[in-house]
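Lecture 7 notes: from sequence to structure.

We start with a single chain of 222 residues. Read the sequence below before looking at the structure.
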Amino acid sequence: MNNQRSRYLMRGATLSNLFPSLTNTGDSPKFPEGPVWEILNPNSEHSLKLQLEEVVEGLEDGIYIHPTAIIGKDTCIEGPAYIGPNVEIRHGAYIRPYSWICEGAVVGHCTEVKHSILLPNSKAPHFNYVGDSILGSGVNLGAGCKLSNLRNDGRTILIRDGNDGKKIGDSGLRKFGAILGENVQIGCNAVTNPGVILGCNSHVWPNVTVSGLHSENSVIKD
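Now the structure, written as tokens:
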């Protein structure tokens, strides 16, 4: 791969480019310096795992639920977990350990979230799987959209150019779903392969399988 293009793509994968409205105030976790996906590394000193354990320390079952959150019937929430203000967890949702659901986010009917961050006002509203992933503010997953997080061969997940598939880097993570920048919209029944990164305002058409890193305002049709 052209080194200049590689550097350009990686600059687009920074915290400020993917989540420009994110601040160090409010109920969001604190992201470490360096690659955005480093927060998903359980061995990092600034990992989602450690931050959540600190937030819910001493709470029953290791679960924090804000008084304004709406929890539907027949949901399952396993700690450690954080459910923020005005969050909606709908009927039949499954929140697995190390999930951080920020203000105004939606986890819908029969959606499963595991070791992931839903930043403010992001939505996984219908039959979604969100594993080892980060959803930026304003993201919406269409019904049946799945963010896959594990290679079939179990190896660490590589960061690749979404256009030509060439390697940009190695995440060092065995489990890594997707990082979706602010206002990304994904159509129904689309699937993201492990290690997908989509820049802000990108659109994925229904029934598409997505791989690699795509810059902001991308439109992915096939």
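The chain has a mean pLDDT of 94. Keep this in mind for problem set 3.
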